[in-house]
Request: fold
Amino acid sequence: MRKPIIAGNWKMNGSRSSIKELLDGVKAGMGDVKSAEVAVCAPAIYLADVSEQLSGSDVAWGGQNLSTEASGAFTGEISADMLLDFNSKFVIVGHSERRTLYGETDELVAEKFEVARKAGLTPILCIGESLEERESGVTNDVCGRQINAVIERSGVEALADGVIAYEPIWAIGTGKTATPEMAQETHASIRKMIAEKDAAVADKVRIQYGGSMNAGNAAELLAMEDIDGGLIGGASLKAEDFLAICKAAG
Ligand code: 13P
Reply:
């Protein structure tokens, strides 16, 4: 059995005071979350606050991006060790916003996955197709290409050290969720592609769904066999909504 994992991706949102309020609310409701693993991925500048507020709680935390470099003259970048310095457990790599707005390639994302994993962070590898790609029937090719970049660089076993987040780009921040059946179909295809290389890894790796998951639609998405959790954007910014999703995961 794969333990479901719900992670909030706060993106570039929040302030010191709003984060305090949000985390107070999340911590207060965690008693009702029975089996899901819960984490928040915060803007790096708030990780000190987040680690202070979440230490000793059942909520883990992490970053939203990292550098492939360990240290040095890389203005504006954040290293794996810096994330670890604040006891981060997770780091998102290859979010579609980074791929599309900041030009991150499959190869760069694979390198980030490897750097994170080797440092002892759990990378959350985001994959997913655009609307145009979905409509032209190449969803599985796109997801396969994005995952294969990691497999080619680090080997299929490396996937088991991370989490995959399937996030159809057309569903992110649009309020348009993939139907549970549509999401399940893609999740199953992703797992099958991995199983062709290593059945044990495919069975073990958790695949989250992301894209307008909210308190109202989480239960039916999470009920699908191959959906092992969620990567939550907008709905992770309200304690009540985020907790409802965590509870729906078990
Ligand atoms: P929304 O939940 O706001 O659609 O964002 C999803 C996402 O991009 C999580 O990484």
